[in-house]
Model the fold of this input.
Amino acid sequence: MIGFKRFGLLLVCCAITLIALSTQGYAQTGMTYDEYKLKLAEYQTRQATANKALLECKTAGDELSQQIGDLDTQTAGLKTNVYELVGSDENGLNDFLQELDRIEARLMGVRGLSDDALFEVRDEVDQIEARVKELKSDKRALFPAGTLKLASIDNLLEQINARMPRKRIRQYSVMKNDSLWRIAKKDDIYGDPYLWPRIYVENRNKIKNPDLIYPNWVLNVPFGVDLNQHLVMRGENLSTIAAKVYKDITKWNRIYQANKEQILDPSLVFPAQVLEIPTN
Done:
């Protein structure tokens, strides 16, 4: 590579110069006049050689500086070309990498959460996963720094999803004047009274009549659903669910076919139903 030979030449030049200069002024005793003239001539020759070497060193240094400047110019041009290929610039790449840094930092925090706390941020993790998928399709992800950062994020998501509880059961002690409707309406339960059937279905071994529950009963209250399931909310139908899970309203029939046992009429689904969602 350029520069190594030049660098070696610089070292040799400097060594010659130091040797030449160190011998000047050295006086030997008992020297005849003829010997003195010979020694002086020798020193003058060595000094001339050193001066020549210094000049060559300077010339080599100037050439090396020029080559380095040319390389810097070429590198800047290549960087510009690369940025044009990915449709960005240095600021755009920095913004991209900073977003990846923020995602990585958040996932590191999520990874350390307890199972209960992890359950509460499952929707956020899903959103992060969707965003990461978008970022992977960005051409800026081809830069080595982006590739390494995305690999780290994938590893964190894998660890989090391996621990992620998609469904959680919480126990509730029935109080006086409670009903399934009132329990479901509580802010710390579902915040929606129309989801009461979910509690009923989860406790059918105990509740024979959904209109009759008794104080001090301990009911299992389910939260969340397993992977590839969907909890029907008020106002939803098969078409809106298909649009949400498949991004395609026309795939409602796939959900219907997978849930025929609990869907009597494809135009009617009810809040609190848990539907199986076939993989896309």
The first strand starts at residue 167 and ends at 173.
